[in-house]
Amino acid sequence: MTKKFRMTVQGAAVFALAAVLTAQPATAKPRGNSGLPPGPGNPIAAVQGEVVKLQGDITKIEGEIGDLQKEIDAINDLLNASALMWIEHLDFLSGDPAVLTTSFLSTNSGVGGGLSGLIVQSSTVGSTDSHSGIKVIEKAVQVPPHFSITGVRVCYEWSAGATSSIDRIRLSQVQDPPSTALVKLDDSTAHSGGPLCVDSAVTSVDPSLGSVLLDIGINTVNVADKLVLRAVGLHLVPTAP
Fold first, then answer.
1. Average pLDDT, stretch 60-87?
2. Is 138 in the same domain as 218?
3. Could you tell me the pTM of the whole model?
4. What is the pLDDT of residue 215?
């Protein structure tokens, strides 16, 4: 864009110079002993003046183009920057309500200082539900168009003395036809204690290719342990065109 603009300006300068050269020279006063012949004024000085003026205009425009390019670069950097988008964390569903329940109490979660969140409790020990599947809470996630998911952030707190843990952060993408889901992230790092915010392993999921499901796995050591999910976010980057 800058190169084309400069060529346009330079073309305008040449056109202006040609116009000056072909213009009718202005009448000037006698030159005395200047050595120039008497008669109409010499147009060279006027041409040189126009050239200098045009050169100054070109320099000014080039400076403005440079400033504009800096602004464009700053906008591109902003558009291409990674971002953390917090999502609704109170609507996770239990993967098996028979052994894993979710609840909410705005006044006091009963964990830590009592800050509210999604309360998760299990009636059985281990990481397997009553159907021999993984004990999880799950939800579908929404992502703005033209962004890809590169990871998940989970903020949580276990009740005092709890030995249970979050043992899985998983992203799966529904395929077409919607009879299967492809696992795109399966981070089995254990997270206990808290309050903490932890990030999953890095992945790359383009949500435009299919609905994305987020699972958080629970490994229960003591059924008295209580998990409070305080926040969940998605790490996003612009999808390459």
1. 86
2. yes
3. 0.70
4. 98
